């Protein structure tokens, strides 16, 4: 009925004589005028680990994203309200899981094959749009600890920062698993925006040995009884120099009210590497982190253009005793708008550094002592990514990518080494991502 009405609303005389593509465009425009927006995005990517890692090999991963956003004011007279939902159909293998062994997957698309609901929320704007409240299943990665200049990059850690994606239960609310929550956004002034959110603390039941993506296979758990996770931030916008180059600095913190495993000691107070220990994990109450984001347009491609050379940097720290990663920094440069022939093409180079916590390092040293072997002491994982995004047409993009991954797994033991004395070798990854959108 809805499509038929839209066809009737948007169809001009003799519409049957128009090309199919034009008729579809007319129908879509009519739906949008009525408040209904629909999106379809397919990301297909083939990557190869050509050196190092756990083993050499290649993998293909695909993700179909179907979404809708409905302006409830236009659709049903609900002033200031918006509904949004989207789902994923994920297929293929994961390069990091099967071949590299790193902490931060080569691609943010990489996940277990599934058909899964992701977001399902309603947002209400109040006070003339100065305050908005969003309720429902949602991700935190688009608004929190985020930069507008990092979306070109493929490595998962350059989307949702690698530290929170590693230490939070089930990876925190980010693809491919969102959680129920409530988010407040307040425009305090033209320059200052405040964000505060309360999310359920885990997208899946207690993990044990199972992957949270298996425990919440279809995104329909809608968990609300786990210890909650709070996150808040303040974002300040300003301009630099005579050219009035836009810049933003963001500061914030998060607090999780659940329990987290001690990275070194067992429940009886002995090292987990000690043969005399119980082997039972000691659990520590609560976890937290602080973070900052800085981003700036460094130079314009042309006067008054919003494209040019941009820079971003993000940093975060968390307690050492209950987290595998205690310090995290990433950053990079984005180049856009320099080709008159391809004005929407983009080039990016970025780097990631994650420090393994002191407690986790101490456990590795304990393992050396108790086994009498040169067991590797984990120290850091670092990644360099270089990528170029070529816009073939408004609906199709091609993106070659290179990543160098130093100390995969933070310098973890190579699972293929029977002596348990050698790290996973540094990995070199090449590949291509394609994006088809409508």
Question: What tags apply to this protein structure?
Answer:
single chain, about 450 residues, mainly beta, 16-stranded antiparallel beta barrel, about 45% strand, disordered N terminus
Strand order of the largest sheet: 1-2-3-4-5-6-7-8-9-10-11-12-13-14-15-16
Q: What string, H for helix and E for strand, traces the elements in order?
A: HHEEHEHEEHEEHEEEEEEHEEE
Distance between the termini: 22 Å
As a percent range, the share of helical residues equals: 10-25%
Which regions have little confidence, pLDDT < 50, spanning 5+ residues? 1-13
Strand-helix topology:
Elements: H1 2-10, H2 20-33, E1 36-53, E2 57-71, H3 72-76, E3 81-92, H4 95-100, E4 114-126, E5 131-138, H5 162-167, E6 179-187, E7 192-199, H6 212-215, E8 229-240, E9 245-266, E10 281-300, E11 308-317, E12 325-336, E13 346-356, H7 358-371, E14 380-393, E15 396-406, E16 425-437
Antiparallel strand pairs: 1-2, 1-16, 2-3, 3-4, 4-5, 5-6, 6-7, 7-8, 8-9, 9-10, 10-11, 11-12, 12-13, 13-14, 14-15, 15-16
Helix pairs in contact: 1-2
Question: How would you summarize this macromolecular structure in one to three sentences?
Answer:
By secondary structure, the chain is mostly beta strands. Helix content is 13%, strand content 47%.
Description of the structure:
It is a single chain. This protein has 438 residues and is mostly beta strands. Helix content is 13%, strand content 47%. It is built from seven helices and 16 strands. The protein has a 16-stranded antiparallel barrel with strand order 1-2-3-4-5-6-7-8-9-10-11-12-13-14-15-16. α1 (2-10) packs across α2. The model is unreliable at 1-13 (pLDDT under 50).
